[in-house]
Amino acid sequence: xxxxxxxxxxxxxxxxxxxxxxxxxxxxxxxxxxxxxxxxxxxxxxxxxxxxxxxxxxxxxxxxxxxxxxxxxxxxxxxxxxxxxxxxxxxxxxxxxxxxxxxxxxxxxxxxxxxxxxxxxxxxxxxxxxxxxxxxxxxxxxxxxxxxxxxxx
Length: 153
Known about the structure:
This protein is mostly beta strands. It has one helix and twelve strands; from the N terminus they run E-E-H-E-E-E-E-E-E-E-E-E-E. The protein has a single domain (about 5-150), classed as Jelly Rolls (Sandwich). Helix content is about 10%, strand content about 40%. A seven-stranded mixed beta sheet has the order 1-2-3-4-11-6-9, covered by helices on one side. A three-stranded antiparallel beta sheet has the order 8-7-10, with no helix packed on it. The model has no long low-confidence stretch (mean pLDDT about 90).
């Protein structure tokens, strides 16, 4: 399969051994199984070679029970390309008020791109969702910053 599991990650993360990455249904089945069996209910394949790369491309598989709290990247534009399933992305202002919601699906509104100042979080609308997330590196300089109000509850 030519994929290795990366160590030290919050959820299962696979990386390609080769410099040329080709993703197929078998890879997606592995991602699904990893996500279903992990407490965070998500997994990913990193298409970028290293955390220091300037562009990070991640194929992410999420199960319905997976939750990513509102967050933003400090310096990077982010793009989602939905491949399977549907999800909405909810945007918030600095005080935690919802400002906008965009629904993504492979048949309509399948790409969403936005600037780093927006707090946001994806909400799955199907049992599982598979999408490509692209953002600028390097990591951890561009590590997600969680919204300050999420601990207020």
